[in-house]
From TrEMBL:
This is ATP-binding cassette domain-containing protein. The keyword Nucleotide-binding applies. PANTHER family: HIGH-AFFINITY BRANCHED-CHAIN AMINO ACID TRANSPORT ATP-BINDING PROTEIN LIVF (PTHR43820:SF4). It comes from Aeromicrobium yanjiei. Keywords: Amino-acid transport, ATP-binding, Nucleotide-binding, Transport.
Length: 241
């Protein structure tokens, strides 16, 4: 397995303010799903924006599939194979499902049919405007649009935002199929901790912009009290293996 996304000593924040992410080191392998967890305001979205070049880093480095990517250069990140699904899903709400999918750049082989095989529910909604879809269908479409770009790295911010847990439970296994089929490295920010741990290979908890806990997701799922402590910022910054 090779490392597809590597963040080294990353510090990030907003102009004029103090860093909101500090000393962050993350490596995500081909086909790996890493859950990035942490309380509100911990810096998870800031980290995704920085990794995807939408926000310049304050220091540290970003590598995508071995290629160093200049901080703050979203085009370079996309060229290197990184695709972000933002928490607002960024759909063209006046266009149909089909148009949303076809408008997404297609570089090597992901076809609309392949996307529909991951999300068969979109077949029946193919000619419907994205703005008329349910929240779950919109999330399927947002992920589908990302897949049309053949991502090497897929960053997903708050997949479950506004969705009932039962819908989230249906969506998460698709990410495992995508990681297995395509080898994409997936970095998932998710508030449903146990659902995320159930899916992910590895999990990292951040609090106050710094890593406070890291381990195999299956191990952390058996230690909910450690997760709880980490959310409160009181866990020692030790790896759990
Ligand atoms: N555009 C911005 N300008 C200045 N500060 C910001 C901006 N966006 C976020 N922040 C601050 O950065 C910190 C981290 O926010 P961030 O959204 O990255 O956290 P998060 O872990 O994703 O939280 P949530 O789960 O609530 O989305 C917070 O203190 C927040 O107020």
């Amino acid at each position: 397995m090779s490392t597809i996304l590597e963040l080294k000593d990353l510090a990030a924040g907003y102009s004029g303010g103090r860093p909101v992410v500090r000393d962050l080191n993350l490596a995500v392998e081909q086909g790996e799903i890493l859950a990035l967890l942490g309380p509100n305001g911990a810096g998870k979205t800031t980290m995704l924006l920085t990794a995807s070049g939408l926000l310049p880093s304050l220091s540290g480095s970003i590598e995508i599939d071995g290629t160093p990517v200049k901080s703050g250069n979203a085009r370079a990140a996309v060229r290197a194979g990184l695709v972000l699904v933002p928490d607002d899903r960024a759909l063209f709400t006046t266009l149909t499902v089909e148009e949303n999918l076809r408008l997404s750049r297609q570089r090597k082989g992901t076809t609309v049919d392949k996307v529909l095989s991951y999300f068969p529910a979109l077949k029946e909604r193919f000619k419907v405007g994205a703005g008329q879809l349910s929240g779950g269908e919109q999330q399927m479409l947002a992920i589908g649009r990302a897949l049309m770009q053949d991502p090497k790295v897929l960053l997903i911010d708050e997949l479950s935002m506004g969705l009932a847990p039962v819908i989230v439970e249906g969506l998460l296994p698709v990410l495992r199929r995508v990681a297995d089929d395509t080898g994409a490295a997936i970095l998932l920010v998710e508030q449903h901790v146990m659902l995320a741990l159930d899916l992910a290979d590895t999990a990292v908890v951040v609090a106050h912009g710094q890593e406070v806990l890291r381990g195999a997701a299956s191990d952390l799922a058996r230690s909910p009290q450690r997760i709880e402590q980490a959310y409160l910022g009181s866990a020692p910054p030790l790896a759990v293996s």
